[in-house]
């Protein structure tokens, strides 16, 4: 799940929900998609949690920062 | 002649120098403000000096503005423009003309800043710096928000507060700068360049709180505008109040009416994101729930069919079919077996009939000579020793004579 960012995760989750809502899938595919979606939902939720504002001075950031 | 002799004679140079000394010794000439309309304007493209006349309805005065002063102008003077200049009046000895050496100039009436603003705006617009196509979209989930503003004042607190309330997840990378005065635009340009170089922000807010037009003037700096245009990170400008527009606002990727509004634009609302995630999760479970419900209903409908509700019936018919088939199979097999048996019996009795030993049983004997079956009288002659085999033993015999049976008989 770590290869996701919040943005890509929420986008994929939207796709999955749409696929499942449209129906027409096999039980196997539905279960697989559901499992993926549940994982993404958990990931997104975690991404939104544990946030405490941090203020950093630009001067303290190294030049080689990505 | 005597009169002429008694009065001292000057050269032209001496005369002009004398006149110049009179101008230069007059305090009133050293610092003077003159309002008038520009005419005969020429911009010496090599030296950058400006030459023009100031005139009103009845009079004109020559004016020169050297490039050192002219380069500080915030607008481009042109013919017909009403201006107020300040400077000193002196004499250009070579030509014997007096003129005003202009130190500063500002448009009369409309205001220097307004004219400069309009001119710069027109220029940058023509260059395409305000094109919508160049504007970068703001990130929807920024994890680092760059803030360039004064470290003191309400703006920085407003920005921090809104960012913290809406989206505490985003780190704030702060660069304190002067937001008014001579060095402000340079400091802001350097800050933008530092952010770009360090790539340490997903979006940048640049701005300050409200103030006079002069206070906000540094946000109309041409070089700052170009720095914002060149910045690879999306820039939100937030200068003064809603009614204040600066060049920065036009060139930035997004203009916010106030610093607080800039913070609102920069980050998403965490609560809204949480609600969105929750609603998607709900839909996910709902979709699977209704999928399972549909599939279960399909299964139930299948189970309601006769073969399931009355399995005996299903099995009966299957059994009947099976039974019928096995009867047929048995009959077929028996038929085959019977046929095989007959063939075998026939073969067996044929074999039986051909067995010479069974012939012996019926009383016939088998005659052999030197191990060869004797089936013709021609094969033996008198005094041959023959073996006669019967069913229960053999006899050694001597041929006493032979007689051939006449064939024609």
Task: Give a brief rundown of this model.
The complex is a heterodimer of chains A (66) and B (409). Chain A has 66 residues and is mainly alpha-helical.
Record keyword descriptors for this entry:
heterodimer; A: 66 residues; mainly alpha; elongated; B: 409 residues; alpha/beta; OB fold (Dihydrolipoamide Acetyltransferase, E2P); Rossmann fold; 5-stranded mixed beta barrel; rod-shaped
Can you offer a commentary on this structure?
- The mean pLDDT of chain A is 83.
- The relative contact order of chain A is 0.15.
- Helices cover 59% and strands 5% of the residues of chain A.
- Chain A has two helices and one strand, in the order ααβ.
- Chain A has 66 residues and is mainly alpha-helical.
- Chain A has a domain of 45 residues.
- Chain B folds into three domains: 102 residues, OB fold (Dihydrolipoamide Acetyltransferase, E2P) (Beta Barrel); 152 residues, Rossmann fold (3-Layer(aba) Sandwich), CATH 3.40.50.261; 41 residues, no CATH class.
- Chain B is an alpha/beta fold and 409 residues long.
- Chain B contains 14 helices and 14 strands.
- A five-stranded mixed barrel of chain B has the order 1-2-3-5-4. In chain B, strands 7-6-8-9-10 form a five-stranded parallel sheet, sandwiched between helices.
- The chains are: A mainly alpha (66), B alpha/beta (409).
- At the A-B interface, α1, α2 and β1 of A face α6, β7, α7 and α11 of B.
């Amino acid at each position: 799940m770590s290869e996701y960012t919040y943005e890509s995760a929420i986008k994929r989750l939207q796709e999955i929900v749409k696929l499942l809502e449209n129906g027409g899938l096999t039980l196997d595919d539905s279960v697989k998609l559901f499992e993926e979606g549940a994982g993404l939902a958990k990931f997104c939720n975690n991404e939104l949690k544990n946030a405490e504002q941090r203020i950093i001075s630009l001067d303290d950031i190294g030049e080689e920062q990505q | 002649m005597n009169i002429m002799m008694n009065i001292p004679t000057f050269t032209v140079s001496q005369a002009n120098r004398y006149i110049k000394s009179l101008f230069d010794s007059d305090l009133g000439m050293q610092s003077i403000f003159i309002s008038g309309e520009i005419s005969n304007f020429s911009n010496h493209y090599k030296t950058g000096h400006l030459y023009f006349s100031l005139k009103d309805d009845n009079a004109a005065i020559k004016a020169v503005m050297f490039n050192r002063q002219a380069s500080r102008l915030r607008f481009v003077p042109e013919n017909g423009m009403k201006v107020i200049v300040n400077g000193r009046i002196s004499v250009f000895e070579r030509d014997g003309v007096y003129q005003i050496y202009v130190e500063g100039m500002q448009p009369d009436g409309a205001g220097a800043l307004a004219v400069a603003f309009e001119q710069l705006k027109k220029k940058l617009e023509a260059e395409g710096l305000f094109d919508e196509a160049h504007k970068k979209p703001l990130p929807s989930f920024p994890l680092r928000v760059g803030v360039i503003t004064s470290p003191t004042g309400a703006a920085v607190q407003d920005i921090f507060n809104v960012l913290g309330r809406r989206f505490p997840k985003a780190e704030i990378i702060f660069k304190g700068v002067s937001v008014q005065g001579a060095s402000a635009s340079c400091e802001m340009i350097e800050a933008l360049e530092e952010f770009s170089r360090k790539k340490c922000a997903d979006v940048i807010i640049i701005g300050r709180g409200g103030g006079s037009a002069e206070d906000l003037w540094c946000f109309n700096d041409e070089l700052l505008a170009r720095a914002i245009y060149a910045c690879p990170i999306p820039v939100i400008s937030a200068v003064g109040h809603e009614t204040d527009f600066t060049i920065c606002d036009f060139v930035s990727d997004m203009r916010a009416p106030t610093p607080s509004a800039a913070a609102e634009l920069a980050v998403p609302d965490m609560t809204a994101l949480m609600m969105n995630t929750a609603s998607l999760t709900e839909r996910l479970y709902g979709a699977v729930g209704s999928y399972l419900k549909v599939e279960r209903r399909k299964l139930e409908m299948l189970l309601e069919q006769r073969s399931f509700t009355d399995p005996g019936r299903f099995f009966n018919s299957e059994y009947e079919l099976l039974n019928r088939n096995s009867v047929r199979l048995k009959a077929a097999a028996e038929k085959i077996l019977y046929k095989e048996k007959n063939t075998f019996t026939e073969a067996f009795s044929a074999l039986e009939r051909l067995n010479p030993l069974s012939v012996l049983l019926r009383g016939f004997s088998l005659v052999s000579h030197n191990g060869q079956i004797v089936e013709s009288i021609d094969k033996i002659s008198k005094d041959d020793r023959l073996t006669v085999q019967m069913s229960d033993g053999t006899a050694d015999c001597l041929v006493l004579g032979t007689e051939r049976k006449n064939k024609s008989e």
